[in-house]
Write a structure and sequence with these properties.
Nonspecific Lipid-transfer Protein, Chain A; 20% strand; four-stranded mixed β-sheet; single chain; globular; DUF7884; Cyclopropane-fatty-acyl-phospholipid synthase; alpha+beta; 87 residues
């Protein structure tokens, strides 16, 4: 049930971010799915969300919630090299 509620809220949030900000960011989820937050061939940043509880840090973000999730390793990151991002 929680996954269904968060899934709907997550989808609305991702569509809004994609349409308004068009970020070169990919969000791979704990479930194996991934969501792109913009239009790109290769993301500059990949932020893996390692558990359902972490999705709230993105739905209602602040430096505190995102920072805590990163420190607790609920989020992991991968940044593309400058050479790869230039294509």
């Amino acid at each position: 049930m929680l996954d269904k509620v968060l899934g709907a809220k997550r989808q609305v949030w991702m569509e809004r971010v994609r349409n308004e900000l068009d970020l070169p960011v990919r969000l791979p989820l704990w479930s194996g799915t991934r969501h792109d937050l913009g239009s790109f061939d290769t993301p500059l940043v990949s932020l893996r969300i390692n558990g359902i509880g972490t999705i709230g840090a993105f739905l209602d973000p602040s430096r505190g919630t995102l920072g805590e999730a990163y420190v607790r390793e609920s989020i992991s990151q991968r940044v593309a090299s400058a050479r790869a991002s230039r294509g």
